[in-house]
Amino acid sequence: MKHQSATLPIAWISLRILVILNWLYGAAVLGLLAFTFVNESWFRRAIDVPAGTEAQPIMIGLRAIAALGLIAVPINHLILKRLLRMVETVSRGDPFVAANAYRLQAIAWALLALQLLSMVIGGIGKAIASKEFPLHLDAGFSTSGWLAVILMFVLARVFAEGTLMREDLEGTI
Amino acid sequence: MAIAVKLDDLLHERRMTLTELAERIDITLANLSILKTGKARAIRFSTLEAICAVLDCQPGDLLRFEPEWDAGEEAA
């Protein structure tokens, strides 16, 4: 029996929107990064660097964070596109294919890369933050994030094994 | 694959068509055709039992191990 569910179309549309939002986020970060070079003094006032604080290390740190944020854009795109392809295979009624196992593995590696990026960004944030210039970033080591990475690698392996078993079953008369 | 399915020979000996066998053992003609052409990856005991019962034969009459040319060369 085939279940007609709204989940798949909603997931497909949401992923499509997220793909666009991801690129918009990238464009915004790129614009911001470019602006720090074009009008540095305005930017310093905007982020409210207190008088008497050495602004140059903060600027370098923030630019590095923005640059790392840009690296996250293609990684996010990779994850979203693969998820989108997986949702499409589910819609076609044939998700247990080898391609999806490879997609899950690629997503696992991408999540690992994002976790590492997050830790580097968190480290930079801590390095440039001070009592005069408090900076609270939602980045750094995340137990749930690393758990998701491990889970994804395991799931990819389970999926690959499941696909092989299904292929065997399909050829059984 | 080194396992050959001799269904065609058995059907010929019994003067039976593939369609007739498919109907009698309740397996789709498409699946039985896959088995006959040697494209199947595995065969269930229940399928083997049904075929043997209808064709009045032993599993060994249906399946035969035929070493592939490369395998034979390696052994030599």
Automatic annotation (TrEMBL), chain A:
InterPro entries assigned: DUF2975 (IPR021354)
User: Which residues belong to the signal peptide in this entry?
Assistant: none
Which keywords fit this entry according to its UniProt record? Membrane, Transmembrane, Transmembrane helix
**Is Transmembrane helix among this UniProt entry's keywords?**
yes
Kindly list any coiled-coil regions of this protein: none
Annotated transmembrane regions = 12-38, 58-80, 101-121, 141-160
Q: Record keywords: Transmembrane included?
A: yes
The identity of this protein, by name, is DUF2975 domain-containing protein
UniProtKB/TrEMBL annotation, chain B:
What species does this protein belong to? Sphingomonas hankyongi
Family annotation (SUPFAM superfamilies): lambda repressor-like DNA-binding domains
Tell me the protein's name: Helix-turn-helix transcriptional regulator
Identify the domain of life.
Bacteria
Question: What InterPro entries does the entry give?
Answer: Cro/C1-type_HTH, Lambda_DNA-bd_dom_sf
What region holds the HTH cro/C1-type domain?
A: 7-62
